[in-house]
Design a protein that fits this description.
Length: 271
Amino acid sequence: MTSRAKFWLSFLFLVLVAVVYLGASGMTWTDIQNLGTPRNALIIEGEDIRIPLPEDSDGRVLPVVEATTSGAYSFMFMDGDTPVLWDPCRPIHYVINPTGAPPGGEALIRQAIASVSEATGLSFYPEGLTSEVASFDRALIQEDVYGERFVPFIIGWSTETDLPELQGSVAGLGGSSSVPGAFGDQRFLQGGVVVLDAPDLAKMMSTEEGRALALAVIMHEIGHVVGLGHVDDALELMNPSNSNVKGWGPGDLQGLALAGAGACQGIGDPE
Ligand SMILES: [Zn+2]
């Protein structure tokens, strides 16, 4: 064999080793394009888990919503001066655990999601029902259940006995997690949990006016999931103790429009 042939043979061998290594290490083409910038990782139960790559996207799923009102709003997570938000270039996948739901509960959830989607310009993708128990202790990646990606947003029902945080007049809880994107410093909201107090909401839903209030409770909790925090103004739905507000207030709508206008992962600013 000539030395030239030897060179090409060993070169081919190295390439094959590299390909096998990439396969074994779970690296992907996107990792290679970002070579030199290591994929961000999360520590889950003591294990280093690489941040899942986002779904493919050609840009925003829904158009930006322009705020036409102004008032009080706040964000749950700030990264310097910038709120941490969902990536508007991918739909927010969600699952519902129907266990313990009052009659009509699921319809109310779908109505609340439609309202948040309309006010934010964020798209929600229904993945159907789940048996995962909605809990704020859930792992953000559950490969056995949902595959190699972040868990979908989950909505479920509970009671004061099972979840003491629901005691008293608390009718629901909601929030998301702030995590880094696969590459770079930008943070995004992921996961998302809403737990609703089934007996409280069932009682409300027995009258037409109460049904509107129950819907408002779910809208408030999903408001947290898309990043909104509480405000002191009692005319806003994001006030922590809802007296009789049944729809979004002017500050809520301004905050929701901003919550849907975040940056896209790997695409830059949404157009
Ligand atoms: Zn709240």
